[in-house]
Specification:
With 326 residues, the protein is of the alpha/beta class. It has 9 helices and 10 strands. It has a single domain (30-314), classed as Arginase, Chain A, CATH 3.40.800.10.
């Protein structure tokens, strides 16, 4: 039987100690033999409001120490069938956004030369554009599931064309995605005019505004998206500000009226079976959440995305005896 990396158990080493890697996995210096690679991209120089996401990867890793290897909601056991490690942070240039985006793209070119699925911890949302550029070189135009409070389709911000708010316009213009297989979920808030969302819909983007999702189980939506995507390669970009600030206050551009954590879980779990080629979890800004709740939520959402990857084993746990609650 092939030996696979495992998170350090909390029964072997206290969870407040050990390596600061995702789920206390081994840190790998090579991609050889890996199926999934977690990495940090600690950049917040593409943001337009509150900074602090440069600290996101470190805090997400710290909070991930509480996550155990089996998903008790779904029975998914990713570490039984996939070899997974943390490959550390990309060495971005914190004084230059253009150079940072170039570093990300070149780093992903090297990562994707291996048969590995990269799962990134941001960082602000500007990191997704160079990732999609590299992904398109490897896989062709992608289906994209984009969960966010914002559509991120501005043409420019302060004269800059590559920022956290322009990602999906640039990706559309550059042919990196399949327009009618882009799903923007949770968008909301105020805008500058009705065209803020309408233009992207004219490109073919499918948009699901948060107010239409209030008090709904998002499992059926996830299942509908899964059927619509079929066997196309998929990238998932999860902006933590898609959640209501009551659940995720530590983010750069919060908007009230967002999704709940329960909705986020049911949405991701319903996507099981799609051909995910990469994921990111962005916009966690620890300075705005002293309790670490936002990073804890982000870490768990990354784990849920890990659990829907192809070839993840599913265990069927015995039901608790009737009347047993603990």
């Amino acid at each position: 039987m092939t030996a696979r990396n495992q998170p350090i158990s909390g029964n072997d080493l206290a969870r407040f100690s050990g390596p600061n890697t995702f789920m206390r996995l081994p840190q790998a210096n090579t991609l050889d033999g890996l199926d999934v690679a977690f990495l940090g991209i600690p950049s917040d120089i593409g943001t337009s409001w509150r900074s602090g996401t440069r600290f996101g990867p470190k805090q997400i890793r710290a909070e991930s120490a509480m996550i155990r290897p089996y998903n008790m909601f779904t029975g998914a056991a990713p570490f039984d069938s996939l070899n997974i490690a943390d490959i550390g942070d990309l060495a971005i240039n914190t004084f230059s956004l253009p150079q940072t985006l170039q570093i990300i793209e070149e780093s992903y070119d090297a990562i994707l030369a291996h048969d590995v699925i990269p799962m990134a911890m941001g960082g602000d949302h500007s990191i997704t554009l160079p990732i999609l550029r590299a992904m398109a070189k490897k896989h062709g135009p992608m289906a994209v599931i984009h969960i966010d409070a914002h559509a991120d389709v501005n043409d420019e911000m302060f004269g800059e064309r590559e920022t956290h708010g322009t990602v999906f316009r640039r990706a559309y213009e550059e042919g990196l995605l399949i327009p009618d297989k882009v799903y923007q979920i949770g968008i909301r808030g105020s805008g500058y005019g009705p065209e803020d969302f309408a233009e992207a819909r004219s490109w073919g983007f499918q948009q699901f505004q948060a107010n239409a999702l209030w008090n709904r189980d998002l499992g059926p939506l996830g299942s509908e998206i899964r059927r619509d995507i079929g066997r196309r390669p998929v990238y998932i970009s999860y902006d933590i500000d898609s959640l209501d600030p009551a659940y995720a206050p530590g983010t750069g551009t919060p908007e009230i009226g967002g999704l709940t954590t329960g909705q986020a879980l049911s949405l991701i779990q319903a996507l099981r079976g799609i051909y995910v080629k990469g994921c990111d979890l962005v916009e966690v800004s620890p300075p705005y959440d002293s309790m670490g709740t936002t990073a804890l939520t982000g870490a768990n959402l990354l784990f849920e995305m890990l659990c829907i990857l192809q070839h993840v084993e599913i265990h069927h746990f015995p039901a608790a005896p009737k009347g047993e609650t603990k």
